[in-house]
Amino acid sequence: MKNSSLEERFLSTKGRINRKIFILYAVCFILFCLFLIIPTFLVIISTTDGTVVDISISIVSTLIELALLPSLFLGIKRLHDLDKSAVWIILCVIPLINMLFLAYLCLIKGTDGDNKYGKDPLSLDL
């Protein structure tokens, strides 16, 4: 994985990732969202112009949606590390279940050794 491109790492469902990489990405994604959402709400609170509010919300929504795509792919790769099918990613859209599912992805150790989705990410040179 050492020589993998950003596209392979973030825009592909092939392969596996370990808990550490998944958690690091999740923390970065949460911080990214917070740094977008907080200023947007400050703009909304401080303005009475509906156009500025609409534009701010549209920009933030678009950026968050774009950031969700790599999250989806990394979630699938994490499932692969647990030797689970990508179909399980659907649990992310069910309220309350999604929090338990995220905890599962973050806390449960992946399959030891190779599985049908690829080599053990802990055995690869990072």
The percent range for strand residues is under 5%
Class from secondary-structure proportions: mainly alpha
Number of domains: 1
Q: Using only CA atoms, what is the Rg?
A: 17 Å
Q: Write down the overall mean pLDDT.
A: 86
The gross shape turns out to be elongated
Measured as a percent range, the helix fraction is 55-70%
Query: Segments where pLDDT lies below 50 for 5+ residues?
Result: none
Q: State the helix count.
A: 4
Query: Count of DSSP E strands?
Result: 0
C-alpha termini separation: 6 Å
Q: What order do the helices and strands follow?
A: HHHH
Largest sheet: none
Features:
126 residues
Please provide a written account of the structure:
With 126 residues, the protein is mainly α. It is 60% helix and 0% strand. The protein has helices at 6-10, 19-46, 50-81, 97-107. The longest helix has 32 residues, at 50-81.
